Amino acid sequence: MSEIPHFLREGYLTVEELKNYVGLPSEERLRAKPVAVPECPQEIPCTPCKEICPTNAVLMENPNAVPRVDYEKCIGCSLCVQICPGLAFFMVHYLGDKARVTMPHELLPVPKVGEEVVLLNREGKEVGRGKVVTLIPRERSKGDTPIITVEMPLELAWDVRAVRVRGE
Ligand code: SF4
Ligand code: SF4
User: Residue limits of the 4Fe-4S ferredoxin-type domain (predicted)?
Assistant: First the structure.
């Protein structure tokens, strides 16, 4: 019997799984402009990310296939992050010794631009502090969830996938 993958057992992807299932953009690409990364390793019948992408950067062999991104075609528009019902798309951009990660923010309250927030890793544990640099509120998003971009230390770019408003 094959072993159940960690992400199914524990409910979150490790960075190693992400590298294996999806593949990460090169450092050069990460520094050029924001790039979308699909963290969606299960074969499910779902295609909004592919349909909304204006440059056909989201690749799926069939409607059940795991999405991949042609990182060179991605223009960092964040539409896939907004539309994904599984909250499984993120964008990452390296800027000097910081990274900016764009992510859905499901919980209330929604942080404000400029606000310092608590950074949470893939397991939901606190790993530091970051600052919200952009916000797409729910009413302007293509999906049902506000989208935030959070600046954080570069070394946390692949660990942090949620934030908590301080004092929550
Ligand atoms: S960020 Fe925009 S261009 Fe890049 S994969 Fe997502 S929808 Fe396509
Ligand atoms: S829209 Fe989201 S859940 Fe659906 S296939 Fe794309 S990444 Fe996966």
Answer: 65-94
User: Residue whose CA is closest, atom 4 of ligand 1?
Assistant: 74
Token digits for 121?
Answer: 């890793």
Ligand 2: which atom is nearest the Cα of residue 89?
7
Residue type at position 80: C
Q: Which of 74, 84, 141, 147 to mutate to test the pocket of ligand 2 (most atoms within 8 A of CB)?
A: 84
Q: State the pairing for strand pair 126-136/89-95.
A: unpaired
Answer whether 135's CB lies under 8 Å from 115's CB. no
Domain boundaries, the chain: 6-165
CA-proximal residue: ligand 2, atom 4 (nearest): 46
pLDDT digits 0-9 by tens, 50-91:
999 999 999 999 999 999 999 999 999 999 999 999 999 999
Do the beta carbons of residue 95 and residue 112 sit within 8 Å? no
Query: How far, in Å, is the centroid of ligand 2 from the Cα of 128?
Result: 28
